[in-house]
Amino acid sequence: MDERTWAGKTAVVTGASAGIGRAVALTLARGGAAVVVSARRAERLEGLAAEIRAAGGRAKAVAADAGEAAEMERLLAEALAWEEGGRRLDIVVANAGRGLAGGILGSDEAQWRELYQTNVLGTASLLRRAGQHLARQGSGDIVVLGSVAGRNISPFSGFYGSSKFAVSGLAEALRQELCATGVRVSLVMPGIVVSEFQQVAGYTPENFGKGVARFGRLLEPQEVADGVAWLLSLPPHVNVSELMIRPTGQNYP
Ligand SMILES: NC(=O)c1ccc[n+]([C@@H]2O[C@H](COP(=O)([O-])OP(=O)(O)OC[C@H]3O[C@@H](n4cnc5c(N)ncnc54)[C@H](OP(=O)(O)O)[C@@H]3O)[C@@H](O)[C@H]2O)c1
Questions:
Q1: Which of 232, 224, 253, 252 is nearest to 97 (CA)?
Q2: The whole model's pTM is what?
Q3: 157 close to ligand 1 (CB < 6 Angstrom)
Q4: Average pLDDT over residues 131-149
Q5: Domain 10-245 in CATH 3.50.30.20
């Protein structure tokens, strides 16, 4: 990967104010992409955009709630209207999401609706709009952040895992709908990545730390971003439709 890998391309990354999304945005920018970064925390986004520009890259911050369809519509419209005459949209990374400790019995039911609104419905709204646009364009990439917990239910977070099962289904449905148009859809399923995710989810040494202690060294966001960069750098006729990245010592999920 060098500054020519995505030169002339525009990428939108949701959940870019922290963790995996931030690492993906910086990686795409280093590879020459103009990057539209989105999340709710506007100050964080402006800081990231400034960091990308200071390194010679191009970036625009759009604060938006990824759980709201209208906000995702506005995000894509702002990305397309970024420069006079309108830019192409080449890469959309649907990454915004959150976790929740506990299963069906133990998780905080008061957070269920918001979790599904963000992880499932908001993701679906972004995928629908991005898919419609890229299909008209006849090319492009959509990368969806699922989880190993969206393939094997996790002993730490069964309710969250159910939302990621839905995300896995959305990604595969979209891949089938779009493949004939030349648009690639990839589902990236990380194992445990050290980020703000654990705090937001309400993980504690008791409900999480003890269980993962035996996994050894956990993943950093950049290691997932490297996987995303790899699949986005392949020739357009090669679609890595699923990529699972675990810490080597993680046996389950
Ligand atoms: N960390 C892990 O172990 C792990 C494993 C597998 C999959 N994943 C998935 O990877 C993705 C990124 O996770 P991460 O580890 O990078 O977590 P993180 O460090 O907590 O970052 C989450 C990002 O999503 C944004 N976000 C959350 N809710 C949002 C909303 N309603 N609207 C807009 N943005 C929202 C946050 O920004 P604001 O708060 O500023 O809005 C933040 O930028 C998530 O989909 C997560 O489910 C994580």
A1: 224
A2: 0.98
A3: no
A4: 97
A5: no
